[in-house]
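#dry-run=false #mode=assembly
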Amino acid sequence: MSKNKFETDAIRTQMERSEFLEHSTPLHLTSSFIFEDAEDMRASFAEEKQRNIYSRFTNPNTSEFIDKMCKLEGAESGYAFATGMAAVFSTFAALLNAGDHIVSARSIFGSTHTLFTKFLPKWNIETSYFKIDEVEKIESLIQPNTKILYLESPTNPAVDILDLELLGHIAKKHNLIYIIDNCFATPYLQNPIKFGADLVIHSATKLIDGQGRVLGGVTVGRADLIREIYLFSRNTGPALSPFNAWILSKSLETLGVRVDRHCENALKVAEFLEAHDKVALVKYPFLKSHPQYELAKKQMKHGGNVVAFEVKGGIEAGKHFLNQLKMLSLSANLGDTRSIATHPASTTHSKLNEIERLGVGIADGLVRISVGLEHVDDIIADLKQALEIV
Ligand SMILES: *Cc1c(COP(=O)(O)O)cnc(C)c1O
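#status=ok
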């Protein structure tokens, strides 16, 4: 475990300098690496020495990004992927056998849900779901073939909070691999390994890049599990590109200051919305009115950058509100410097019916704001003028 504080590790975790003594990390755009002689090549392939062979396996830039993520999450080991979904899929594919079973929170990222419902069943891997307010039901969902307990907190898009420590105890008691997608919190706000997680997954596309430029993903955690994920991935090819790894490692240098400001802006936006008479409900983990406020305070440093709220007047009012925005972008991403608004009921969750949507905390008028780094007065001014018209 590193003794440094978060910001220091985020900046000072760096690959060895080359003969040029560069200050900032250089980019190693090379698909392969050369060997001294035939014996060096044999020993390298036999893993008798730790060295780079081929960039699908390891590369200095991806290794730097992984080492840094491990320090920031307090993890033993990791592997980096081309996207967050490549991290999610490869983690499950590497660890599960046909016939295994997953217990998962119902409120999870849309593509992860599609993986569980549409693709993993092809290999006879089924998933049982619990709702965030039925945590007491989890143990009744566990079967003899259950292998993984999976969740996200805060959830998307309703920003509900699950008790990481409590679920960690359940996972341990039943000998399950406990996996958390920590994308909304980032390692700066929350370290699931402290609460018993065996593996932590991130879409680095979001706040880790934080500038809407590249896709990336990473899984970190227990070395024995990461070894399986590494072997699966080095043979199937979901690796992160060295260029994107270089960008993401640089981005981590500023993660702390960026996320501090994101959260400060988000809290002000949430407070503004809560006081507005055209808003029915605001969900933000660090608002006192949030149902899991105390729990959020216990497991997170700040409340994150996502604010969910309901415009009075249902689906039409939600869509109308989005159309009135002048500065906020309508975009599928989140965690960018630019503030983004989405309307889940008419987009990401439109395939669910109203009852199913309500089951995952999505009212028809629910709007999700990913609060960016523009001046908070300008963000609020845009929301204010859009709300005047709905
Ligand atoms: C975006 C996201 C993913 C998927 O990441 P990609 O980089 O888009 O593949 C997974 N989980 C959560 C919570 C996300 O927000």
